[in-house]
Amino acid sequence: MSNTEQQLHYSTCTLCEAMCGIEVATKGRQILSIKGDKDNPFSQGHICPKASALKDLYDDPDRLKRPVKRVGDNWQEITWEDAFDLVANKLHGIQQEHGEDGVGVYLGNPNAHNMGAILFGPYFYRSLKTHNRYSATSVDQLPHHIISRRLFGHMSQIPIPDIDHTQHFMIIGGNPLASNGSIMTVPNVKKRLKGIQKRGGKVVVIDPKRSETADLSCEHHFIRPGSDVLLLLAMLHVLFEKQLYNVEALLPYAEDIMEVEHYVRNFSPEKVSEKTGIQASQIIQLVTDFCEAEAAVCYGRMGASVQAFGTLTQYLIMLFNILTGNLDKRGGMMFTQPAADTLPVAGKGSLGTFTSRVRGLPAFAGEYPVACLAEEILTPGDGQIKAMVIGAGNPVVTTPNAEQLDKAFAQLDFMVAVDFYITETSRHADVILPPVTALERDHYDIVFHNFAVRNFAKYSEAVVDTDADQLTDWQIYLSLAERIDKLNGRSTAHYAALWSKQPKGVVDDLLQTGLYGDKRGAFQNGVNDSDTEKEGSTAHGLTLKKLKANPHGIDLGPLQPSLPFALFHENKKINLDFDYFMADIDRVNAHFFDKQSHAQPLVLIGRRHIKTNNSWIHNSPRMVKGNNRCTMQLHPDDGVKYGIENGDEVKVKSRVGELTIEAEITDAIMPGVVSIPHGWGHNKKGIKLSVASQHPGVNTNILTDHMQVDELSGNAVLNGVPVELEKVS
Ligand SMILES: Nc1nc2c(c(=O)[nH]1)N[C@H]1C(S)=C(S)[C@@H](COP(=O)(O)OP(=O)(O)OC[C@H]3O[C@@H](n4cnc5c(=O)[nH]c(N)nc54)[C@H](O)[C@@H]3O)O[C@H]1N2
Ligand SMILES: Nc1nc2c(c(=O)[nH]1)N[C@H]1C(S)=C(S)[C@@H](COP(=O)(O)OP(=O)(O)OC[C@H]3O[C@@H](n4cnc5c(=O)[nH]c(N)nc54)[C@H](O)[C@@H]3O)O[C@H]1N2
Ligand code: SF4
Ligand SMILES: [Mo]
To answer: Is the CB of 158 under 6 A from ligand 1?
Structure first.
């Protein structure tokens, strides 16, 4: 890249799931500007205010570029060789002394947005052979994976809303106008939601908050946090009672679907009305409107997943889509057909029988729920975690009972963090290994193309050069993996090929053997009846070279019906697995109906803001400018009840912790519910985030309770946490 002239590059924003195309102007190693890429066929020029945070991250003086080692209270730069040797020897030594499980691993969200980390990180984690693996999945989408694994045979085969063709979009616990969509890669979601209404369709939002998305919808219903499971049971009840189901198309794949009736018989709309806060007549209307639409989709996200019955709720949402004939139908829930499809080669998600050592929480896909991480560090005995590897995560801010985890991390014998910031979590590390930032590395979206609302493919090359001693995540992981294998006396012969292939070589293989590639068929699990099949079409015969030659990306057409190919079970059927899921109805009954009726406690939920990204872009001055956003929202009625006025300082207490926060009175939130955004609390001693420290906010996960989990999955309960309020005088 020339040093003097301005150059334009076409890249992808990797901050959220929307995969917006960006046009980045550079001069030498300087990033001049970031704009929306108008020629990107998928995002068509759309970006949100966060895109510019990529530049701020690149320019951030607080960002580490070389490895550092802790020396007392200070950090000392060391060479990569020394850092890798130190980390590998330490981890190996701890495993020799305490067994393989003595080393724990926590993987954070940005790994999913990082081609190198997702493809080559596993070499390192596998070399450690530890059972003590954790990730942000269990404060997020774990229920989706379990459902997809059981129903469709693969944990990542998750159907997504065909937003561009639906006539009725019911959103339960998602706020795509703030989050830009999740498990639905959807740049410019606002335009697409308005599109539904323009073509005469309807957007319905079920949320304890009248969110930005609710404001734009046609219909919004407040729901008592954590009671979605009752709403869904009643919606299914209405389907059967009024015989509104439509199972003809899907019955061949789900032969026992009509048995659902038996499980929902006792859940009339009248029965659940008080607990959910939604009138019986409205529940019936929700179902009839949905069934009258030509194509409809019911979509549940964070709000529906991270709650006491998250797995059962998401399962019932899937059943509702199946029973109304909307799975695998244009305008319904559809399976994406990505160009580089890792599913056939990646693990399906082991259902295993492992349970966590201390509390017996279930493992899924080789990971335990992060809600039990602290106790695995704090409780002595065989298998106790003595050292942690943190890869692109900040669990001290993002996981339940954060203060307990903070204390647990302080007791470790060793921690290594792969991160470019000294955060609330990495400040506990002995060594920090900083990778380059997003615009300094090549990118192909391995994960989020799979959940995109159109079939699409795009490869972006790094837009700026780096120094020879700056490394990417994959180089860090491969270096460590090779050393750990060597220390264990295992063969390292295969590493040479990996170093030369690189993640981009893997992407090339996947493209060529994939649905739109010339070597298609090797393991491809799908149909391709779109016009991409035609000789001469840009989308035909995809290779890495072809994608590089089309830097705005290549559109591969709208989502296509893909049953039975999308099913990974050998019999090509959907396994509804009633025994596993419906058994949880006993817990629903016990929770909602067996207890003596008493007043419902005040409960806490979370929220996102367009200028946040979980815990980590608050060091960009542009992202934190303006009024304090880390407030506790509460309804005016609750303001009166607790004697709290707008702007008052309030003490909020839960079973596990307490904090003080500014109150914001708003009727956008349901009475009996308070909302605090997550990702804040940048006031810990030892962090090096000079801007974020000026706008610290408070960490809501001081209040969330590690003992409160969705028992079926072990997923954390971050919504619906009982709290008490007290005005600070
Ligand atoms: N109360 C409450 N808590 C929540 C949520 C909520 O809604 N409410 N949401 C949950 C959800 S959905 C999620 S996904 C989790 C996220 O939880 P985490 O993944 O634990 O946290 P992040 O804030 O994403 O932290 C990412 C870290 O990775 C670093 N990083 C960024 N990019 C890279 C990279 O390319 N490579 C490397 N090596 N490091 C990088 C950042 O500096 C940061 O320190 O939070 C969860 N926590
Ligand atoms: N700007 C921004 N964008 C992001 C992120 C970010 O931090 N900031 N994080 C990214 C990540 S990691 C993820 S996973 C996605 C998440 O994306 P979304 O799933 O859209 O998550 P939220 O925006 O938190 O919206 C969740 C909604 O659920 C509601 N809710 C809370 N409890 C309940 C309940 O019990 N029932 C119902 N029905 N609703 C409830 C909340 O009021 C909120 O409106 O966003 C991604 N995009
Ligand atoms: S919506 Fe914003 S953060 Fe998400 S990919 Fe697009 S520009 Fe980036
Ligand atoms: Mo997430």
So the answer is: no
